[in-house]
Amino acid sequence: MVQSLNKKVDLTINATSYLGMANYGKVPIYGNIMVGDQAFEFYNDTKLRDYIQIPWSEVTEIMASVMFKGKWIPRFAVVTKNNGNFIFSTRDNKKTLRAVRN
What we know:
This protein is mainly beta.
């Protein structure tokens, strides 16, 4: 089992990670996002060993795709200092981005 980096959790929500690559584009991986005081974490639903933990000290910015004058945000990306971009989508992206902002 993976140990969480967070001591206090602000939000846990169902999510999709677009990390893997296949012949036809990015492969979605389903799981949960946990936004806390120490890190941004993604845990896979089926494979417990597949997880992404990004400490807040590694995050440089959060990019979001905004459509229809801010009414709809289909996905967002977490940009890190060394490891590139991680693309995610949740059930409520606005709520997730508000939790990340805090």
